[in-house]
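I am writing to request your help with a piece of structural work I have in hand. The matter concerns a single protein, recorded as an amino acid sequence and a row of backbone structure tokens. Could you please explain, in whatever detail you think fit, how the structure tokens follow from the sequence? Thank you for your consideration; the sequence and its tokens are set out here:
>
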Amino acid sequence: MKGKTGHKCDRMCVAPKGSEQKRLVRTINDNIVTFVRGPAGTGKTLLSVTYGFSRLIDKEFKSLILTRPVVEAGGERLGYLPGNMLDKIDPYMMPIFDALLHVSTEETLAKLMSKTRRNSAIRVLPLAYMRGITFRKSFVVADEMQNSTTEQVRMLLTRLGEGSKIVLCGDTTQSDIAGTNGLENSWNILSGVKGVGFVELTSQSIVRHPLIRQIEERYQKHNRSRRK
């Protein structure tokens, strides 16, 4: 089963809704690196993950790599949680797993990923453990990158190898780190570089729940009034 963008799915297909989401899919298709930012519920993670998953199933890529900075809302530190590294990172990858479950089944995902195999088709890697890795024929989705530093974004992008793509997603209004975040800073630094695309999603693209659009617009209005 395929959606309008050619996404191959086990279950419900996810097709872009509206001009902004369609532009996101085109930008990912046409570039090696894509930066996408927008408020919660705009589909930036969902579309990025399902794009990569469909290309993985079609064997365009050998692996789908999922990552995000491990910075918790409210400042709680990952090191205080019980368990090993993968046990600790799993809760922070739930939004990405939810996106995969829109287009696949738990059985299919279980076959494609394993915590013990380095050559799994779907791999979950903490951003902090990326140094020294080279992505070859891989589709990488880096989520919640408003919580990254500029050096972390630089480190991630320099992992690029032959035949790979990277999508960096985030909402710069919901950063849990102090100062300018890596997503926002790198957006400005890399503007105009060939092969790097940028997509801004607005509240008009919110599809998660109709109330979220009103909530986001009220908070944006409040923040603008505070800056005056």
Notes: DSSP finds eight helices and six strands in the chain. The helical segments are 18-30, 44-57, 85-89, 94-103, 106-112, 150-157, 182-189, 210-227.
